[in-house]
Amino acid sequence: xxxxxxxxxxxxxxxxxxxxxxxxxxxxxxxxxxDTFRVQLQLDSEGGSxxxxxxxxxxxxxxxxxxxxxxxxxxxxxxxxxxxxTYGSCRLGIYSFLLDKQRRAGGDITFVHK
Length: 114
Prior knowledge:
Layout: E1 2-3, E2 9-10, H1 13-45, H2 56-67, H3 69-73, H4 77-106
Antiparallel strand pairs: 1-2
Helix pairs in contact: 1-4
C-alpha cells in the first residue's frame, strides 16, 4: 500500500477486488433465500388448484421445517458465491481502482469518465 497526497493509505487492486467479492457474497447470502422462495412459488402455481404454499412466509417456514436452513433456503449458493467472487470482484475492484487513478490524474470526474 502506498500513501496518497492527503497522507491516507491507498488500497491496492487485489484488496479492492477482495472487498468487492466479499461484498457481493454478503449480498448473495441475503438475496439467495428470497430468490429460492420466488422460484418455489412459481413452480407451485403451475400445479393448478392443489397448491402447497400460501405465500412467501409460508414457503420460508415450510422449507425451513422440511429441508433445514442450508438445503431449504440456500440450494445452489456455491454457484452464486462463485459468480460474485469472479464477476463482483472484477466489477467493483477494477472500477474503484480506475476511478481513483482518474481522480489523481485530473481532479473532477465527469459522468462520461465514470
